UniProtKB/TrEMBL annotation:
The protein, known as: Fe2OG dioxygenase domain-containing protein
Pfam families linked: 2OG-FeII_Oxy (PF03171), DIOX_N (PF14226)
The organism's taxonomic lineage, starting at the top: Eukaryota, Viridiplantae, Streptophyta, Embryophyta, Tracheophyta
Keywords: Iron, Metal-binding, Oxidoreductase
Chain ranges of the Fe2OG dioxygenase domain: 184-288
Family designation: Belongs to the iron/ascorbate-dependent oxidoreductase family.
InterPro entries noted in UniProt: DIOX_N, IPNS-like_FE2OG_OXY, IPNS-like_sf, Oxoglu/Fe-dep_dioxygenase_dom
Top-rank taxon, per record: Eukaryota
Length: 336
């Protein structure tokens, strides 16, 4: 806490958040759904345990992530982010809270998605393929590890989506449709926060934002830094730390699910503060199919509760949000 900015240290409301914990091994479906629904109504953040991903494998994923970020900059720039938002993102590439940030986020990352074969009719969609993988000569086995983790994270996401469907009083398989999670957009990010201390207001490891899509599964290395703000309209905003739990995902809902649920479920502001320690995390973002029309769910509207958001196609919404938060790729061409 001693490395937090002065305005944070003076805020007596700073505290550690208490979140619901969803145990996927619990056979009491009714209890699971009630607990999940309460979390979604409260703040849209919750823990997920007993998800079936081996802890030893997770340690390997983080070790492989560290190996990538330890590469010389010239090697990382060989896989620079492309037009499909895949590849390496240097420090300051993303600015999530332009009204309050100086420059951009003090983190570097690597974006990847599930590969779609070139003979697939949807191969050229904006958020499918290709991933500019680092050389196997430099990082042997790296790609295979990351692809396996993406598949595992997607499986867990679909398990959670079935519980979300029940919490929204929909059929359990509602989100499994081809136009939704039957062929989803997924983006996995390896993130490296370089251990900055924050000397003044406006410099953040990751600026305040809500996620764009349906939900996010976050794996962390155990270093504290993530904060949430349950009431984004409060003045001043009150931020709470979300402590990592070993072996658990921190899961949060995205803006698309808030739109789908007509504001019933919450997409919550969150950010990361630097505290002088290096930090690694791996968020896995889940969105529906490119062509999915995100509009108010049938169970979330009534005569007295009309849709609050206009319908919008998933890829249109994502393209708009990425454009707002990332620097133009041409800036890197000017630097070479």
């Amino acid at each position: 806490m001693e490395n937090l900015p002065k305005e944070e240290l003076q805020d007596s409301t700073m505290k550690v958040s208490s979140l619901n914990c969803i145990d996927l091994a619990n056979n009491d479906l009714n209890h699971l759904v009630i607990s999940l629904k309460q979390a979604c109504l409260d703040c849209g953040f919750f823990y997920v345990i007993n998800h079936g991903i081996n802890e030893e494998f997770m340690e390997d994923v983080f070790e492989q992530s560290k190996k990538f970020f330890a590469l010389p900059m010239e090697e990382k720039m060989k896989v620079l982010r492309n037009q499909k938002h895949r590849g390496y993102t240097p420090v300051l590439d993303e600015i999530l809270d332009p009204d309050n940030q100086v420059n951009g986020d003090h983190k570097e990352g690597y974006y990847m998605g599930i590969e779609v074969p070139k003979d697939d009719p949807h191969w050229d969609k904006p958020f499918y393929s290709p991933n500019p993988w680092p050389s196997a000569d430099i990082l042997p086995g790296w790609r295979e590890t990351m692809e396996k983790y993406q598949q595992e994270a997607l499986r867990v996401s679909k398990d959670i989506a079935r519980l979300l469907a029940l919490a929204l009083e929909l059929d359990v398989n509602y989100f499994d449709k081809p136009e939704m999670l039957g062929k989803p957009i997924t983006t996995m990010r390896l993130l490296h926060y370089q251990g900055i201390s924050i000397p003044s207001k406006g410099i953040y490891a990751c600026g305040a934002h809500s996620d764009y899509g349906m939900m996010t599964l976050l794996a962390t290395d155990g270093v504290m830094g993530l904060q949430i703000c349950k009431d984004k309209d409060a003045k001043p905003q009150k931020w709470e730390y979300v402590p990592p739990i070993k072996g658990a995902f921190i899961v949060n809902l995205g803006d698309m699910l808030e739109r789908w649920s007509n504001g019933f479920f919450k997409s919550t502001l969150h950010r990361v503060l630097g505290n002088g320690q290096e930090r690694y995390s791996i968020p896995f973002f889940v969105e529906p199919n490119h062509d999915c029309l995100v509009e108010c769910l049938p169970t979330c509207m009534s005569e007295g509760n009309i849709p609050k958001y206009p319908a919008i196609k998933c890829s249109t919404y994502l393209t708009q949000r990425y454009k707002e938060t990332h620097v133009e790729l041409s800036i890197y061409n000017q630097q070479t």
